[in-house]
Amino acid sequence: MLNGTQRLGVLKRAFAATAAVGLVFAPLVLAPLVVSTGPVAAASGKGPDSVADLAEGLLDAVVNISTSQTASAERATPPVPTPKAPEGSPFQEFFDEFFNKQQKNREREPRKVQSLGSGFVIDAEGIIVTNNHVIDGADEITANFPDGTKLKAELIGKDQKTDIAVLRVKPTKPLKAVKFGNSDKARVGDWVMAIGNPFGLGGTVTVGIVSARNRDINSGPYDNFIQTDAAINRGNSGGPLFNMDGEVIGINTAIISPSGGSIGIGFSIPSNGAAAVVEQLRTYRETRRGWLGVRIQGVTEDIAESLGLKDVKGALVAGVTEKGPAEAAGIQAGDVILKFDGRTVPGVRELPRMVADSAISKEVDVVVLRKGKEETLKVRLGRLEEGEKIEREKAAAGKGTTAPTVQPVISRALGLGLADLDAANRDRFKLNKDKVTKGVVVTEVTPDSPAAEKRIVAGDVILEVGQEEVKSADDVVKRIETLKKDGRKRALFLLSNPDGEMRFVTVQVD
To answer: What residue stretches are annotated with the PDZ domain (predicted)?
Structure first.
């Protein structure tokens, strides 16, 4: 048996060996091994006795994804510090000239940048799923299999919004494939297993539990991640998260870590959303999502109170896209969407996913709350990608500004300076002439006023007060006075910014 000094020497030699290949370890703390001879306390609950059989049947379906892309030396590697000759050396001039020339040559010389990730086979004929960020910008993609086989991969399609990519390889024999499971059945506390390629080490198995569901980490419009404490590190991206039945219920894609290593907070794209995207990419090489054509915001407690809603739910329509599906169906700014295609809309996060998962050209029932009453409207959905193209073209066409002109304030209310919408105010606040066509301009905001608390700023345009349209500064003042007489404590404002993007805010009026 090794004594303490001998054990320390072995650990030092092991650390030196691993450091030579570029691995970084946390500081080692040696502590005496404590052996207990007493009975082991029975746990109130336990995990699986072993996942060896499960892992053995799945490892061959998980691949390492390696990519390379050509980049300039400036992008690929940081500048190399130039050595200096001794101070006063007669060779200093020649020394500097030589190394400066070497550095310039290095900057002009293109380099190959390598990256590593993970993926998994879903079709024995050679279809592989991974993350978009693993292969983004790659000139070459290679799938490395556990048996040592390396196959060049073709990119079939990718989706930036969900960070999913689908690849194809041409194997000489059928591959081991896995299938998607039902991520909606995964409960917090269920055991899960991740397999991937952390730090380029190759097939690595880690086990943990589902820590949380429906996580929004602000990475995209459809965030709905499964959170897990199964160890996920750099290189695990694109790998599968399995349930204990060996089904893929998530695609490992992100971690929260101050150090870059696992601290037990990892995120996976749920399979129920991913499977639909994968199928579209396989079939069309692109996504084809449903499009409603509305801009929405959350329903807060203040907004719910001002609209007469008993519960804080639904999605508030802040604007409707011109010539979009919603406008054609009669949906209006100020409507609260309560149900979509027979399903309740819990909040603003859920509606975009509901719409995106729906088929293009499908006619759906949309239940809205309008001025205290529910109405059901029929909407024929468009295609999101086409709607985004229209919005980009309109934004590009609307660019351009003119010189500002000062306009005197006409009215004041709730700490707001108000003025009618005219040519002078359009120029002063650089209002989009195509998108901001009516309303009352906010010319100034008093600090610490109710309006300032709601982040109303000069240049905003008031379109409605209490769900009633306002056309002049006097209209705003009169409408607020009416609400006060009716005993209302807050007024619901529909505002537009200079670019025409609308939002609702509630402002205290009592």
So the answer is: 281-375, 389-498
Among 4-8, 45-49, 177-181, 210-214, name the one with the lowest average pLDDT: 4-8
Distances (CA, A) of 90 to 82, 85, 94, 103: 17, 9, 9, 22
490 vs 465: CA distance, rounded Å:
10
133 has catalytic annotation: yes
Q: Within 10 Å of residue 191's Cβ, how many Cβ atoms?
A: 16
Among 476, 471, 403, 408, smallest CA distance to 439 is for: 471
133 known ligand binder? yes
Task: Give the number of other CB atoms < 10 A from CB of residue 349.
Answer: 17
Compute the distance between CA of residue 429 and CA of residue 10 in angstroms, rounded to an integer: 71
Q: Residue 193 is inside which H or E element, if any?
A: strand 191-196
**289 vs 280: CA distance, rounded Å:** 9
> Residue 235, annotated ligand binder?
yes
pLDDT digits over 280-327, tens only? 999 999 999 999 999 888 888 888 888 878 888 899 998 888 889 999
Integer-rounded Cα radius of gyration of the chain: 30
- The per-residue DSSP string of 117-128 comes to EEEEEEETTTEE
Place of tokens 């000094």: 5
Query: Using CA atoms, how far apart are residues 81 and 96, in angstroms rounded to an integer?
Result: 12
Helix%, strand%, coil% for the chain, nearest 5: 25, 30, 45
CA distance 242 to 183: 10
Whole-model pTM: value is 0.67
> What does the angle CA 198 – CA 199 – CA 201 come to, to the nearest 5 degrees?
75
Q: Which of 118, 159, 163, 183 is catalytic?
A: 163
Q: How far is CA 179 from CA 9, 123, 182, 247, in A?
A: 48, 8, 10, 6
271 appears as a binding residue in the annotation: no
The annotation status of 497 as a binding-site residue, yes or no, is: no
Alpha-carbon span 353 to 110, nearest angstrom: 42
Does pLDDT of 8 surpass 50?
Answer: no
What the block records as the tokens of 469 is 């349209």
DSSP line for 429-468: HT--TTT--SSEEEEEE-TTSHHHHTT--BTBEEEEETTE
237 is catalytic: yes
Catalytic, out of 133, 306, 335, 341:
133
Which residues have a Cβ under 8 Å from the Cβ of 172 and sit 6 or more positions away?
none
Nearest to 376 by CA among 351, 402, 339, 324: 339
